[in-house]
Design a protein that fits this description.
The complex is a heterodimer of chains A (73) and B (359). Chain A has 73 residues and is of the alpha+beta class. Helices cover 33% and strands 34% of the residues of chain A. Chain B is built from 14 helices and two strands, in the order αααβαααβαααααααα. In chain B, α5 runs antiparallel to α6 and α5 packs across α10. The longest helix of chain B is centred in the first third of the chain and has 22 residues. Chain B is globular, with a radius of gyration of 19 Å. The relative contact order of chain B is 0.24. Classes of the chains: A alpha+beta (73), B mainly alpha (359). The interface between A and B is medium-sized, with 20 and 28 residues.
Chain lengths: 73, 359
């Protein structure tokens, strides 16, 4: 699975990097980031584009999620 | 409407009400809250520029920093981090402030001015949106100032911004005079906008409330438009609408509403440079990842880069007045006009230079 590191980047670069990665036609993408703002924005963006979002881990410092294409889409 | 949107709406209404209350208690008209104006006054209050009419350490800013700090601590979002192209952010802060002082206000004051009937602010808003879109073009092309580093060993650096704000409050309350004849460490305007202010405690309280809410909601006057274009998120736009409507209704009720371009308080009607000033501000805000208000909130959350951006804005305010770039109610200056155009070009070069190229 491809992975993307958006830790400690300022707004809205985490979303734009996620967008760029997904536009390559990936079906699954792991994203690692920091902070609630980028977590919420990346999640909203992926859902808006019709992807599933699964938050796998979250600590005070870091979150990790997997964005995947919905089956059949 | 979701809880999040209700919170946004409530935040907008509270900011609008507090902004009008601050004017009723003494702040300049349509300037209940203006991050750029308050930073400019504070810069003068510290004696860093010599425009005698705009010198006053604004307690609203101190409250903002403390409110955002308390909110970030309680939400466990306080994190000391920094080191992302710091000097570039400083320079962008300088130009963000110069843009604001050409127009005479930050995007928050732009909304308050619209709520007061000042149509020059509509021109400013168009410029701000256009500048934001233009800055967004560089983001799409891969503009990135790089990742910040988190302070692993200690969080000490992150507290410096808010400690600085509290020290300013100490000086303001203590009223110490090092030089009884010349003034200082703090300077106070005897006339003009700097002499018009609400009582310290009211201003401080209003700042605290807005800082707390702005941190909770991640209020950002450029972020709302950006989120709408990127993720169709309308929450922040609801907050903007609530600010304008609240201020509009209260101004009409208080008889302070005055629709038109002419004779607006602390404003001028040079449309081209109202537009270009806010264009430059919008361009810088998008590249920096947040408007002036957001930079203060982030600085209070431990973001050292945002804190440096605020210092850049303070430096920008100082040179804007010392070099006669800042506009006044009489209009723009030739120097200001030249520098705002140079600023748009220079910030574009920064946007181009800091693009990531796919390797």
């Amino acid at each position: 699975m491809d992975s993307l590191d958006v830790r400690d980047l300022s707004c809205p670069i985490p979303v734009l990097k996620t967008q760029k990665a997904l536009e390559k036609g990936l079906t699954e993408l792991q994203v690692v980031g920091t902070g609630n703002t980028s977590k919420q924005n990346v999640t909203k963006f992926a859902k808006l584009k019709g992807y599933n979002v699964q938050l796998n881990s979250e600590t005070d410092d870091e979150w990790q999620m997997v964005i995947s294409k919905k089956p059949g889409s | 409407m979701s809880n999040e949107k209700w919170l946004m709406a409530a935040t907008g209404i509270i900011i609008g009400v507090l902004a009008v209350i601050l004017v009723v208690f003494g702040n300049p008209a349509n300037m209940g809250f203006c991050i750029a104006c308050f930073l400019r006054d504070t810069t003068g209050g510290l004696g860093l520029h010599r425009a005698g009419i705009v010198q006053y350490v604004r307690p609203e800013l101190i409250g903002l920093a403390c409110g955002a700090f308390i909110s970030a601590l309680s939400a466990k979002e306080f994190r000391s981090r920094g080191g992302s192209a710091t000097l570039v952010r400083f320079v962008l802060g300088v130009f963000m402030m110069i843009g604001a002082l050409i127009f005479l206000g930050c995007p928050l004051r732009d909304l308050l001015r619209i709520g007061g009937g000042d149509l020059n602010a509509v021109v400013g808003l168009v410029g701000f949106l256009a500048g934001g879109l233009y800055g967004g073009y560089f983001l799409k092309k891969g503009f990135n100032l790089g990742a910040a580093k988190r302070e692993k060993t200690t969080q000490a650096g992150g507290y410096m911004f808010v400690i600085g704000a509290v020290l300013l409050l100490g000086l303001l309350l203590a009223g110490i005079k090092f030089n009884p004849a010349g003034g200082g460490p703090l300077f106070f305007s005897q006339e003009g906008p700097g002499s018009q202010h609400a009582p310290i405690w009211i201003a401080l309280f209003a700042g605290l409330v807005v800082g707390f809410l702005a941190q909770k909601t991640r209020m950002c006057l450029s972020g709302g438009f950006r989120d709408f274009f990127l993720i169709r998120e309308t929450g922040m736009l609801i907050a903007y609408g609530c600010i304008v409507v609240t201020v509009l209704v209260l101004n009409i009720y208080l008889g302070k509403f005055n629709l038109g371009f002419a004779n607006q308080p602390i404003a001028h009607s040079n449309h081209i440079f109202n537009l270009l000033g806010m264009f430059l501000l919008g361009q810088c805000a998008v590249l920096l990842g947040g408007c002036p208000l957001r930079q203060i909130v982030l600085g209070s959350e431990g973001d050292l880069d945002a804190a440096v951006t605020v210092l850049g804005m303070i430096f920008g305010a100082a040179i804007a007045h010392n070099f006669m770039l800042a506009s006044s109610a009489k209009g723009t200056t030739l120097y200001g006009e030249v520098v705002v155009i140079a600023g748009v070009i220079l910030v574009s070069l920064i946007g181009w230079a800091y693009r990531e190229v796919d390797g």
